[in-house]
Write a structure and sequence with these properties.
Blueprint: H1 5-11, E1 15-18, E2 24-27, H2 32-40, H3 42-51, E3 54-60, E4 66-75, H4 77-83, E5 88-91, H5 96-104
Antiparallel strand pairs: 1-2, 3-4, 3-5
């Protein structure tokens, strides 16, 4: 199975959010490698962030409470946002093992 650029970035512990104007906001430990990946793959990342179904999501409710939720079947950003109106939704690595492997690999 091929790891997508989005999966690689998420596994490194970096959180990517879409802003309303087709821009990507990155938070977390941004190395030069991660910055270069984001710049070089912007179009693919925008598409993946908007449409790729994911298993794990971080959801920040309008009142500021944050939670992590898993969806089966996997859900797109639009589907998660529809379940939590007004919340900010961000994809997470599919497992915590991905983040651990990236940190040690």
């Amino acid at each position: 199975m091929t790891t997508s650029v989005l999966d690689e970035i998420l596994a490194a512990g970096v959180v990517l959010d879409l802003t309303g104007d087709d821009r990507i906001m990155a938070r977390g430990h941004l190395t030069d490698k991660i910055r270069d990946l984001i710049r070089a793959n912007r179009v693919e990342l925008l598409a993946d962030l908007a449409t790729k179904p994911r298993y794990r999501w971080r959801i920040v409710l309008p009142d500021g409470r944050a939670l992590e939720s898993c969806f089966l079947p996997e859900a797109t950003r639009a589907e998660v946002a529809a379940e939590f109106p007004g919340a900010a939704v961000t994809p997470l690595p599919d497992s915590t093992d991905e983040r651990t492997e990236a940190a040690h690999g």
